[in-house]
Model the fold of this input.
Amino acid sequence: MDEGLKSELQKQGIFTTSLQEVYNWGRKNSVWPLQFGLACCAIEMIATTMARYDLARFGAEVFRPSPRQADLMIVAGTVTKKMAPQVVRLYNQMAEPKYVIAMGACAISGGPFKQGYNVLKGIDRYIPVDVHIPGCPPRPEALIHAFMTLQRKISEQTLAGPRRPRHLDAEAPSEFPVPQFGAHDLVPPKNPELWQPPALVR
Done:
C-alpha cells in the first residue's frame, strides 16, 4: 500500500498492516536474553536491566536462566578457550529464531588479551553474531543501542526470500559443532562455514 494513503487512513483511525509486520512486531518486542555473563562486560549488562536504564522498556523484560527458554545470547566478556565449548553448547540449545550480540572488545576479538594463548579471538569463529558492540567495557547505552539495532534487523526480515530469518531457511544449520580440547588448541580452531581469515594482500 502507498505510504501516503496509509498515513491518511491512520489519521481517520484506520490502521492497515500485513501478517509479516505483525509477526516481526511480536518477535522484536518479546526478546528473551539468556541469563549468563563471562567477565566485566556482564556488570554493564546487569546495569542495563536496572532501574536507571531499564532494558525492559524495549521488550527484554525476562532474562531466562535456561537456554531452552531464551532466544538472545549476549556474549558479555572474555571468551576463554576453556569456556568456548560451553558457549557454543548453550547456543545450540537455544530456541529458534535465535540471535547473538557480542558485547565488548573481548567477545569480538579477544580485546587486551588477544595475544594470550588461552583467549578466543572472537566468538564469531564458532557462532553467528548479529550485532557487535565495541568498547572495553561498553556502557549500558551501547547495549541498548545494540538491542535497538537487533530489533530493527528483526523488523526488516521477510517471511520468504533472501532476507528471511535463518530458521526459515531449510538449508541453514541451527546447530554448530562444539569445539573439543585438542593437544595444543581447540579442535576445530574455527567453524569454516562462519569465519575465514582475511586475505593477506601484500
Observations:
- The longest strand covers residues 72-76.
- Residues 46 and 140 are 9 Å apart (CA to CA).
- The mean pLDDT is 91.
